[in-house]
Amino acid sequence: MSRKIKLGILGGGGDSLIGILHRVASSMYDRYELVGGVFNIDLDESIKFAEEIGIGTSRIYKDLDSLIEAENALPEHERIQVVSVLTPNFLHFPMAKKLLENKFHVICEKPMTTTYEEAKELREIQAKSNKVFAVTYTYTGYPMVRQMKEMIASGAIGKIQKIDVQYYQGWINPIIHDKEKRSNTWRLDPEKSGISCCVGDIGTHAFDMIEYVSGLHVKEILADLNYLYKDNLMDIDGTILLRFSEYVKGVLRSSQIATGEENNFTVSIYGDNAALKWEQENPNYLYMLEDGKPMQVLKPGHEYNSAFSLAGTKLPPGHPEGIFDSMGNIYKGVARAINNEEYHPGEFPGISDGLRGMNFIEKAVDSHKNGNTWVKIDEN
Fold first, then answer.
1. Which end of the chain is more exposed for a tag (fewer CB within 10 A), N or C?
2. How far is residue 307's CA from residue 145's CA, in Å, rounded to a whole number?
3. Which secondary-structure segment (H or E) carries 33?
4. Boundaries of each GFO/IDH/MocA-like oxidoreductase domain copy (predicted)?
5. Other CB atoms within 10 A of residue 261 CB
C-alpha cells in the first residue's frame, strides 16, 4: 500500500457544507491525509478550526503564499502534494494558478474560474506543469450516473435524439425579495461570484452532466435568463435551449427561485430505442424506459452493472449511498492519477471540463443579453 497523499485545503472552515463534503470524501478509501491549509482568512480562526477537527496546527498558515513557502522548504516526501480550493469563486483562478506554478496538484470547486479567459490561461499553465487538476462536478461520482454513462456508450438506448436536464433549488428565494439581503450576498456580487449566479453555480453542473453521460458536446445554445429585480445584477433562473447537432437537441433548466425545491437535479437522455433517467434526490435508482415494456429500475452494487459503476460502489445492494460517496469517488480517481496508477478517464472531471463550463456560462449570459440569440460553444 502506497503512503497516503498529503492534502491541504484552502477555505471550507466553520460550518461550510463544502468543507465537510471534501474532508469526508478525502478520508474515504484511506488515500489522503489532511495535514494543513488555510481554512479562514483569520489565522486565529483557522487554527481554532484545525483544533476542532483534530489536525495539528503547525501547518495552518495565514495565507496561500505562506503555505507555498513553508511547504516547499520541507523535504519532498513531507510536503503537501495536492491542495483543494474551496473558496468563493473569485479566488479560484489566482489560487489555482499559483499552486500549479509551484508544482502542487489541484482539486478545485466549480466554477473553475470567473472568466473563460482565465480558464484558458489556467489550462495552459496546467499543461506545462504536468500536474493533476480536478474540478469537482460532484454528481459525476455517483455509481448510477457512471452506469448511465457506460450504458449510453455501449448503445443500450440507441441513437440519442433528445436531452432534458433540470436543476431546481429554492434557497435564494428568501434572499432575493429583500433588497438589503440580496445586496449583501456574495453569490449575487459579480466581484466575488463572476458574471452569473444560477448558471455559474448549478447550471454548470447540469451542462457538465449532460456532456459526461451522453458523450456528446453542446454546439450551440440559446438562453433566456431571469434576474427578477432591476437592481439584481446576476441571474437566478434560466432556461437554455441546446443543440448538439442538426437532429439532436435538448433543454437545460436551472433555478434558485423554484420555491420549495431542495436539490432537484434530474437528467434524462432519450434514444431511438430507449431512455435513461436519473434523479439526484434518489441517486440509487437509474430508470430505463422502452416503448411497450415495463420501466426497469437499476440499482447500485449488482453484477449487472458495469465495472466502472461497481468500482464506485462501496456497499452491498440495498444500502443507500449519497453525495459524500460521490465526492469520495472523485477523490479516489484523483489519487490514482497522482500516484500514476491506471484509472478510468471518467473518474474525475478535469481542467477541460472546467474550461467548457466557463465557456458555457459566458455564452449563456451573452445569448441572453444579445436578445436571446443562438451562440456557439467553442470546441476545445
1. N
2. 13
3. strand 32-38
4. 145-276
5. 18
